[in-house]
Amino acid sequence: MTGDSQHSDDPQAIAQACSEVLWHNDPASKKLGMAIEKIAPGYAELCMTVADDMVNGHNICHGGFMFTLADSTFAFACNTYNQNCVAQHCTISYLSPAFKGDVLHATGREVSRQGRNGIYDISIVNQKNEKIVEFRGFSRTIAGSLLPHQQPSQD
Known about the structure:
CATH topology: Thiol Ester Dehydrase, Chain A
CATH class: Alpha Beta
Strand content: 35-45%
Shape: globular
Distance between the termini: 22 Å
Helix content: 10-25%
């Protein structure tokens, strides 16, 4: 992880460094076995395998775990500009069930980013590329930045 000014003109390097700081400080995503697969400005891909203790009384993945994967992907996508960013509100649609052992792949894409507000769409598919979840997150920037010694990007 680097937070020095050498990355101030490279949006990809800033996005990567921000994700490293966020990951370092994110025990929840780590505890659930998530992994970051790809980061770019306004974009993130994370994956998670549905573990034995993630299924509910219907023997399918509990929606809260899928929400958490989508929410974590949202967080990594919207925090790629070195501006502290949090969720303002979110919506989720569960399209198909996920089962124990499924590998869930979440892709988060920036739809809009203006002023302090952003909109991000996150799709989750299983290992068969079957769509499981659609999530829309609305972000809000707050004071501060993830990387020391750098001004937040105003893109």
